[in-house]
Fold LysM peptidoglycan-binding domain-containing protein.
Amino acid sequence: MKKFSTIALALALPLAVSLPVLAQDSERASPPALSSKCTFLPNAPDKHVVVKGDTLWAISGKFLQNPWCWPEVWGMNKDEIRNPHWIYPNQIVYFDRVNGRLRLGTPLTEGASGVTKLTPQTRSLGAEGGNAITAIPNNLIEPYLSQPLIIEKDEFANAPRIVAAQEGRVFMGKGDKTYVRGDLKGEVSFQVFRPGVALKDPETREVIGYEAVFIGTVKLDKKAKTDDGVDTFIVTTSKEEMGIGDRLVPIPPTPIINYVPHRPEKDVKARIVAVYGGISVAGQNNIVSINRGSKSGLDVGTTLELARYGKLIPDRTNDKKLVRLPDETYGRLFIFRVFKNISYGLVMEVTDTVNVGDQVQSPER
């Protein structure tokens, strides 16, 4: 396909609007220079028409060497990074080659000169917001947005718990009654978890949390009538049979998951703690946990590099003294769920298998 000429692009771009908001301040007019790592691909197209199913990650890959540079080429601030409602199907992302930036517009008509006229775009925060493209494919992480659950030490101690089952049963399934004791704090719908595997920091070997096993969901049927009574619940979904001692956690609101891929605010050095599902290694689109969380400044959308320590080998050309090869970067990790000391990430663009203990680090600037 023939690329737009520089002249045609220059005529069209003044009517396009930098996203995500219609800001006209001096900072937007003169955005800061991009870092040396935020370079455009040599074969980047002049434009990309957004279609349903597109993601920010995929569109970024059409223009940029690194997906975490997406906020920089738009001149986005922190609040804008966390607002997903700004690019929709049928809009067009234009590459402003002169200024090294991306612009957004919608074609109206194409005149005889071949120049496409654009109209300024505004964000829709209403029903249309649900059509905004996401950062990564939602279907890959939706099952993990409210499960698994990381439990800090003793966090389950005061959680409501199943103390008995209907008709003296030991286990319960969908539609069964179950009896619960504990403070519901006004909630009526709960997820049911079972304390699971202890997660140990690969560096300190200390337990930094427990990966609770999701069992199912229950809904309040009848409140206890006496102080020493129990609340009656109905099992609404059941992934596994529930049992006495399983704990209840309020069902969280549906989280916003399509934050823009971005660098962490400060340098992060982390390690892979575990591969979700009990397998030993991970690959593309698998879920892993790392030993850093909100305490280290991570948030949803943080994009990190996967790396492996360089091997120690003998110098066979001289004295056979051990020398260390450089660390090797082999993939990326998109953080989508964050706890205090642990985060879950989706493995992206790997060229090798991911192993427990591998490095996770901030992208080079």
Remarks:
- The CA atoms of residues 246 and 322 lie 52 Å apart.
